[in-house]
C-alpha cells in the first residue's frame, strides 16, 4: 500500500509540473504571436525572445511571477512598428500591458477585454484606429484601474461600464 501511495504522489507531481510547462508554453506562444505582428524593431528589443525556451523568464521587457507566468509586458517608447496580436489575451495572468509611445497601427483586439487580471492597460501615443472594443466592458468584472488610450485615432463611444476606470482617451 505504501508503494502505491508513493507512486500516485509521484504521478500527481509529474502531472502538475507538466501542466505548468504547458501553461508557460502558452505564454511563450502568445508573446511570439505578438513578436510576429511587429514588422520593425529598430532597437532589437525583442531579440531576447527565444521560442525554444519553455518559459519567458529572462526575456527583456517581460516580467514573470514565481510560477513563470507572464504578469507584465512593458514595451513602452521602444519604436516598435506593427499591430497588437489578439493572442496577447492568452496571457491570463497579465497585470500590466504597457505599449505606449510606439508606432502600433490597426484595431485594438476586442479579446483583450478578457484579461481580467489587468491592473493597467496603456496603448497611448500610437496610431491605433477603429472603435474602442465592446469587449472592454469585461473590465468591470476585473481589476483594471488605469486605461490609457489617448493620442490615437480611436472612434466611437466609451462604454458607461468603464466609468469606474480612470480613462485617458483623447
From TrEMBL:
Cross-referenced InterPro entries: Leu-rich_rpt, LRR_dom_sf, LRR_N_plant-typ
GO cellular component: membrane
Keywords: Leucine-rich repeat, Membrane, Repeat, Signal, Transmembrane, Transmembrane helix
Membrane topology note: Single-pass membrane protein
Domain Leucine-rich repeat-containing N-terminal plant-type: 26-65
Coiled coil: none
Source organism, top-level taxon: Eukaryota
SUPFAM superfamilies reported in the protein's UniProt record: L domain-like (SSF52058)
Signal peptide: 1-20
Location(s) in or outside the cell: Membrane
Descriptive protein name: Leucine-rich repeat-containing N-terminal plant-type domain-containing protein
Organism, as annotated: Ceratopteris richardii
Amino acid at each position: 500500500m505504501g508503494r502505491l501511495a508513493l507512486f500516485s504522489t509521484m504521478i500527481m507531481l509529474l502531472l502538475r509540473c507538466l501542466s505548468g510547462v504547458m501553461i508557460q508554453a502558452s505564454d511563450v506562444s502568445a508573446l511570439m504571436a505578438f513578436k510576429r505582428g511587429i514588422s520593425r524593431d529598430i532597437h532589437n528589443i525583442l531579440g531576447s525572445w527565444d521560442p525554444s525556451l519553455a518559459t519567458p523568464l529572462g526575456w527583456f521587457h517581460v516580467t514573470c511571477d514565481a510560477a513563470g507566468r507572464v504578469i507584465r509586458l512593458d514595451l513602452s517608447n521602444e519604436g516598435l512598428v506593427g499591430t497588437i496580436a489578439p493572442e496577447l489575451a492568452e496571457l491570463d495572468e497579465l497585470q500590466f500591458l504597457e505599449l505606449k509611445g510606439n508606432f502600433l497601427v490597426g484595431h485594438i483586439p476586442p479579446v483583450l477585454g478578457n484579461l481580467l487580471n489587468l491592473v493597467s492597460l496603456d496603448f497611448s501615443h500610437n496610431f491605433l484606429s477603429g472603435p474602442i472594443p465592446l469587449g472592454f466592458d469585461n473590465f468591470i468584472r476585473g481589476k483594471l484601474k488605469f486605461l490609457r488610450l489617448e493620442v490615437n485615432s480611436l472612434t466611437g463611444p466609451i462604454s458607461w461600464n468603464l466609468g469606474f476606470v480612470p480613462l485617458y482617451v483623447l
